[in-house]
Amino acid sequence: MKKSTPVMSVVAGEASESRRVPLVDVILDTKTALMELAVASGLQVLQAMFEEDRTALCGPRYQHGLDRSAKRAGTAASEVVLGGRKVAVRRPRVRTAAGEVPLPTFETMADTDPLDRRVVEQILVGVATRRYARSLEPVGAGVSSRGTSKSAVSRRFVARPRAQMETWRHRALGDLDLVGLLIDGVEVASHCVIVALGIDATGAKHALGLWDGATENATVCRALLSELQQRGLRTDRSLLVILDGSKALHKAVTQTFGAAAWIQRCQVHKTRNVLEHLPERDRPWVRAQLRRAYGDADPEAAKRTLIALANRLETSHPGAAASVREGLEETLTIAGMDLSQRLRRSLATTNAIESAIRRVRHVKGRVKRWRSGSMILRWVTAGLLEAQQGFRRLKGAQDLPQLAAVLCHRDRQLGLTPALEEEQVA
Residue 108 in contact with residue 46, Cβ under 8 Å? Predict the structure, then answer.
């Protein structure tokens, strides 16, 4: 509800009449005026800073100096980035015999990178390209600006994610000490984009790369893993690989890593798959049995619980029984490790990558028409990089040295340690 404030007026000596002006409108008008005043004042300060730079290069105005090589050369029409737009300014010029000398303050303010970041952030939070100008603070009618049209915003949104994607997809991975790898796919239009997420020894999460294909097949997954391997991802030592149960992903991982891949099937996906084979009345007790098995720190006891559950379901629901038995050993990989309960819970599911993909789905949901595969990759990249800004350390990260010790012990058992030692010696 709008509040109002009384305004007194006297007409022809009569009694004063009370009129009410909406207080919210007054506040909004004042806020707009203050913003415009701040922008105008800021531009004046900026001009003064330009002049200070020129004075530092040329010396004070109207004072001749024989040792000065730079001289004033008037001004030129230029632009600086301010509040998500380009604003026109007059740039003082300085010249020497070698050519024009740039002003440090102008070089900083004219950098378009902040503008590119502002455009991408506005689009990712839901601002339409047609409404971008309305989302910015007012600069006043007397300030000439540009770069807020639909086409200008679209060009910047295309250019920056494309550059980010190229930089990100070619980043070297050799310096990452990874102990875990998660792989999953996200459907966009008729494409399936495979995403890889790494967990290092400190518990930090890293979006490693993505690959585009028609379906989540082994060929696409191998292409992604091969690219990661070329960028430095170690495939000659044990690594915990957490998958959602996709056979294509499983095949690609085993073909790329070989015995070094220690696969953990997501227990949440497995529970969901088993329950989908059951009627509603049987789901609560089956869910309780699965939760009991997956929460058991003794892998042999957990295995016996799952086998007993499968045997019990064999006659009434053979599909559910088969789902329990399928990949049973790999759902208990974590249970056989000497890890804390909190860390086991974190590593037993694909929740870490699911949260990132959930952010991608939220971002891509704003697109109504997909024009090309490159457009899909740009939006998925933008969503992943947006999700990466909110990444937190893995729950139970303080216990990850225990996982690293378990992986090193497995390396010795598989005979991978000598290869590592030779590389370290070299």
Answer: no
Q: How many domains in the chain? A: 2
Residues 6+ apart with CB under 8 A from 118: 84
Number of other CB atoms surrounding residue 51 within 10 Å: 14
Q: Last residue of some domain: 166, 195, 215?
A: 166
* Residue 64: inside a domain: no
**147 and 220 share one domain:** no
Residue tagged 């690594």 (tokens):
239
CA atoms of 385 and 360, how far apart (whole Å): 9
pLDDT band at 331; cut points 50, 70, 90: very high
Give yes or no: residues 94 and 211 share one domain.
no
| Residue that wins the pLDDT comparison between 35 and 208 | 208
The alpha carbon of residue 410 and the mean position of all alpha carbons in its chain are separated, in whole angstroms, by 33
Among candidate residues 134, 166, 198, the one where a domain is terminated = 166
201: helix, coil or strand?
Answer: coil
Residue (of 335, 334, 315, 314) closest to 323 by Cα position: 314
- Cα(251)–Cα(246) distance, rounded to whole angstroms? 9
The residue whose two tokens read 């200070």 is: 52
SS3 category, 320: helix
Q: How does DSSP classify residue 133?
A: G
Which structure tokens are listed for 26?
């007054």
Q: Where are the beta strands (DSSP E) in 370-411?
A: none
Question: Which residue type sits at 386?
Answer: E
| Neighbouring residues of 371: CB distance < 8 A, sequence distance ≥ 6 | none
Q: Judge if 254 and 329 occupy the same domain.
A: yes
- pLDDT category of residue 425 using cuts at 50, 70 and 90: very low
What's the pLDDT tens digit per position in 358-374? 988 888 887 888 888 88
First to last CA, the chain: 75
The DSSP letter of residue 65 is -
Q: How far apart are CA 24 and CA 265, in angstroms?
A: 57
Q: Does 76 share its domain with 138?
A: yes
pLDDT at 62 > cutoff 90: no
The mean per-residue pLDDT over the stretch 302-323 comes to 94
Query: 381 near 210, Cβ under 8 Å?
Result: yes
Q: Are 383 and 185 in contact (CB under 8 A)?
A: no
